[in-house]
Amino acid sequence: MKRIDTTQIVSPTSKQPFTGRSLAFLQDYDVEDKAAIIKALITTNLGSYSLTTGYIISGCVLSDSNKDITAGEIFYGGNFYEVTAVNGTTNPCCLVLTKTQDATADPLIFSDSVSKTVHNIFKFVATDATVGTHEGVNDILGTDLVSAYGAGKITFTRDAYTGTAIATQNTSSTTYVDLTNATYTTPNDGVTRDWKITGKSCIGFNNSVTETGGSLSIYCGSNVDESRFIVASTATYISNSQGTVVCQKILTSIAPNTVIKLQIKAATAGATSFDLNSFIVEEL
Question: DSSP assignment, residue 225?
Fold first, then answer.
């Protein structure tokens, strides 16, 4: 920990000077403290940390065969940087460290009457350039960025209560139909990923002895997992009975721009209800 000792200031008999080196000392302290916290989080999430890896803190979503990237923030070489967006490049995007000045704070007139700019802003600017070195720091290919959050990052969650809710839905269809608002499309960024998918629903009857229950399923090109709540026969039907079902699946090597969703169907042609639904997508 770095601290400037202020206990020796005895004004007006002993005034402590604040030099350029003092200011650099404070800036270094601020950077080092933040870096220690971010490094600890990355190590906890990923199991290791490397100075030569660019870790995504937010944003930075690739698309169009890795040629486009959204704005965001990364942690690289022990420092935190903003990243500007780009689209329409020819090649996979390259992040180049670029220095600009704060126009409201610069220039300054020094004591020798010379005008100078000192308020530097460093950002990674996404470009179509080939990899090189700028401002003494190696450029980064967008495809080399790594999520700082690691396995089990919840990418998408939707339930009966929050956001665009999954409302109660009735169906008499005995073949699968989509559960409204329970659809996720994987990023169209050229990256193949693994996913953990979880779906839940309470399946109930709508006061008809012709109903025998229903099924909830995870769909990814086909129905890959299914849970059922089915009464053995109409003779055992109990009015307003309800059973909770959960389906879960690990999907490996899923291509970009793939639709994953929950689907429902009735066991027989009665109006079966699907209530208190939830849909969770986790990136592994």
Answer: E
